[in-house]
Structure formats: C-alpha cells, structure tokens
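Exercise 7. Given the encoded structure of a 270-residue chain, write a plausible sequence.
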C-alpha cells in the first residue's frame, strides 16, 4: 500500500492522467462530432459537380463554352445559378433544338431529374446565383390567393394575360401559357427571368409574393375551376373578349338590319 501511495504521489502522475484524459476526450470527439457528416456531404457534393461537368461537356459546352463563359452561340452561364438550369433543362427548353426559332419552346426534357440536379450543381459552382427553391417557398401553405391575383394582374398579365393563358409578343416571340407548369418552375422563372421575361428577385418581389402568385395561378387554372361568367373564350381578358362581342355581336345586328331593309324594300316594290 505504501508503494502504491508513493506512485500516486509521483510528480509525473498528474501529467499522465491529464494526457490520458485528453486522449480519451479527443477520441470521443472524433467519433461523435458532426465533422464526419459534413465531410461526407462535401464529398457527395463534389461527386455531383463532377458528374454534372461530364454532362455539361457533352450536351452544353458546344454552345456555352467549355467553362460556361459563353460563346457566339450561347450566353455565359457564370452566375446564373442552379435555379436557371433547373428551369431551362427541367422544362425541356435546353438543350435547344438544332433549328432555333425566335425563342426556345417548352418541350419534354431529355434529362432525368437526377441529371438536372448534377448539371445545376456544376453550373452553380461556376458562380453564385439563385438556388433551386424548396417546396416551402412555392407551396400553397399560407398563400393569399387574392393578393396573388392582384400581383399577377399588375406585373404579369400584360404578357401572360390575366389567367396565364399566354400571348403574342414582337418579332415572333411570345409569353407562354402557364397552364400545367410546375409551381417550382414558375418560381424559378420569376427568380431568373428567362428569355423575354424580366426577373423578380427577392429584393423586387418577396418570397411571399411569389408564393401568392403561384397560388393564384393554381386556383384559376385548376381542373376543378368553374367559370362563373360562362364561356371564357380562351381566358384572354376583357379587351379581347369585348372585341369579340363587338365584332360578332355588332356584325350580327348589322346583318339583321340589312336583311330587314332588303325585305322591306322588296315588299314596297311588289
């Protein structure tokens, strides 16, 4: 016992105990700290970017340049963000057709969503830009449909018509119909301003306002929507529908008046 007590009082005993405690603490921290998960996520993201670069080099580099810097055949992609890629590729507008028209039309996408995510990750790595929105950002929960209708008529109806049916623009361009467009893609279009559309970043139009507009479009273009005014004539708006009434309604009245006058003149002659 005396020998054991003497060893415990050895000058180096405290140092040894401290070293053992530090080693044990370090081992436990290494085992349970979230650094491993963060490193795994970073590795996964690096692989996603690597796969996206492969897809980009095959399907996009010929127009947008090997580093996304752009060329005479396509704009620069540096700084457009993942949202622009998810919209353009997810709606089938990109890759563009060989014979390009005034603007790229919506068509069936040729990439899977996983491949689109990889392309978006690679382009996002070229420069900071809008990210792909989450369902919480564009979902209907908490949206104000009436406010969305007001915002849509103020900012969007001039081109897309007041229910989003689309309309013609100049030089063969057009504002596409918003019927059947995924809410995520509508949100991304407002964020990035594709083709002829102006962009509405959060500094111009808040995230809540975008959600309200999407909720309004879902309400007016839903399958269960009934038109209380009867036949909608394409939902092109009061100006075009009023013009329809003037042309065909007034034309019919003129035709009846001419017919009555002709019958009266014939009766007088006889």
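Solution.
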């Amino acid at each position: 016992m005396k020998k054991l007590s003497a060893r415990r009082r050895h000058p180096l005993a405290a140092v040894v105990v401290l070293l053992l405690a530090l080693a044990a603490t370090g081992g436990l921290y290494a085992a349970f700290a979230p650094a491993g998960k963060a490193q795994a996520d970073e590795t996964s993201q690096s692989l996603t970017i690597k796969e996206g670069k492969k897809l980009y080099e095959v399907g996009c580099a010929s127009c947008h340049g090997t580093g996304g810097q752009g060329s005479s055949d396509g704009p620069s992609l540096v700084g457009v963000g993942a949202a622009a890629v998810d919209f353009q590729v997810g709606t089938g507008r990109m890759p563009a057709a060989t014979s390009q028209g005034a603007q790229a039309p919506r068509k069936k996408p040729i990439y899977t969503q996983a491949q689109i995510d990889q392309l978006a990750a690679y382009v996002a790595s070229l420069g900071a830009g809008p990210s792909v929105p989450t369902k919480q950002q564009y979902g209907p929960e908490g949206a104000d449909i009436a406010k969305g209708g007001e915002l849509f008529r103020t900012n969007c109806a001039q081109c897309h018509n007041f229910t989003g049916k689309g309309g013609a623009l100049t030089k063969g361009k057009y504002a596409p119909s918003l019927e059947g467009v995924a809410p995520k893609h509508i949100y991304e279009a407002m964020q990035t301003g594709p083709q002829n559309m102006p962009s509405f970043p959060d500094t111009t139009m808040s995230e809540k306002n975008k959600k309200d507009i999407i909720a309004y479009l879902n309400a007016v273009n839903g399958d269960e929507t009934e038109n209380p005014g009867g036949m909608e004539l394409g939902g092109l708006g009061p100006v075009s529908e009023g013009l329809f009434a003037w042309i065909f309604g007034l034309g019919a009245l003129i035709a009846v008046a001419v017919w009555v006058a002709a019958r009266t003149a014939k009766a007088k002659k006889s």
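Remark. Strands lie at 167-168, 174-175. Students should compare their own answers with the one above.
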